[in-house]
Amino acid sequence: AVNIGTDMLELDCHLTKDEQVVVSHDENLKRSTGVDVNISDLKYSELPPYLCKLDVTFQKECHCEGKDNRIPLLKEVFEAFPQTPVNIDIKVNNNVLIKKVSELVSQYKREHLTVWGNVNYEVVSKCLKENADIPIIFCLQRVLLLLGLFYTGLLPFIPFKEEFLEIPMPSIILKLKEPQKITRSQKFIIWLAD
Fold first, then answer.
1. Structural domains of the chain, ranges and CATH numbers in brackets
2. Number of helical (H) and strand (E) elements in the chain, helices listed first
3. Does residue 62 carry a pLDDT above 90?
C-alpha cells in the first residue's frame, strides 16, 4: 500500500498470550491461516503463518500473495514505515493491549503520526485516558452525536476531544463477492448514503 502511495495505513491490533502486539484484522485466525485458533490463546512464536494466498474482502476475485507469511508485530510495522501515518483499531476492549500500543507509539515517537480508537465508546475513552498525546477517532456513538449536533445547528458550541473521523462508504458493500444478492432498493439506499 505504501509503495502505491497510500496516505495512511489502517491496522487492527490484538494481543498474544505473551503480550505481544500483533497486526491482524481477526482475533480468530481460521480465515487468514486456516487454523481455528484465537491470537490471545497463543504465544507469538506459536502463531501459524498466513495462507499463501488471501482473499481481499472488498474486492471481488482479488487476492494478495506474499513471501513473508508471518503475522507482523506492531513494532515491525513502525520500524518498516517510520514516516507513514497509521490508524490503529484497538480490536478488543483490553487494558493491557491499550497500554502496550500506547507504549509502542511513545517508544517510536509516533504520537504525531498515529491515531487510535474503536467503534466502541469505552475503548476510545480508555485510549484517551491512557495517552492523550495520541489523537483518537470518533466511535459510533460519538459520530451519531456529531450528526445530531450538526443537523440541529449546535455543533459549533460543543467541544470534541476526537480529532479524526472515519466513516466507511456504504458502496463498499457493492464490491463484496455476491453483490447480486443486493436488491435495487438497497443499492439505491447505498448510493444515497454515499
1. 2-163 (3.20.20.190), 169-194 (no CATH)
2. 6, 6
3. no
